[in-house]
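tool_call: predict_structure(chain=1)
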Amino acid sequence: MPKSAIRSRTHRSHSRGFSMVELVVSLCVLLILTAIAIPSLMQSFRTYQLNDAAARLSDLFKFARFEAVRRNTAVTLRIQQTGYNWIAWIDSNNNGTADPTEKQLMITGFATLLPSGAPPSTASITATLGPVTTLTTISGSNTAVSFDPRGAVVGLSANVLYVGSLTNPEYGYRAVILLPSGATQIWTAPASGPWQRLS
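tool_result:
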C-alpha cells in the first residue's frame, strides 16, 4: 500500500466534527449571552426612537420658524391625531388640511405624543426657564402653533410637546419645548423624573 494512502486514511480518522455535548454547551453559552444582551439592546433602541421623534419635531418647528422669516409672513404648524398616529405639518396655505406639497411629519409607533398627565412634573424645566415662563402642553390634542414674520411664536407662554409611550413608561420621556422667541429645546426624563436638558 502506498504511503500517501496510509497518511490520508490516518488524517481522515483524526478529523471529526463537534460532539453533541460540545454543540449543546456552545448553544447554552450563546443563549445566555443573548439573554443578557437583549434588554440592553432594547433599551438602546427605545432611547433612539424617543430621541429621533423629539429631534424630528424640533426640526419641524425650526423649519416653520425659518419659513415665517423667509416669507415675511405668519406660518402655522398644525398637529392632528389620525387614529393612533399623529401628523404634524406646515400649513402653508392655511386651509387646515395636510396637503401633499406641505412639509409633514408622521409620529407613529412606540414614540408618540402624550397628554400632560403622563410624564413627570415639569418643575425642573420651569425652574430652569425662569418663574415668568409658563408651560402650555400642546401634545395629546389637536393644536396649531403660529410663527410671526420675525420667527417668534404668537402667544406669551412656552409650548411643550411630550414624547413617550403610555404602555412602556420605563423607557422615559422627551419634551420638546417651543419658547416664545421661536427657539426650541429638547429635554429628557426617566419615568420618575427629573427633567434634564439635552439640547
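agent: Residues 20-71 form the longest helix (52 residues). Proceeding to next step.
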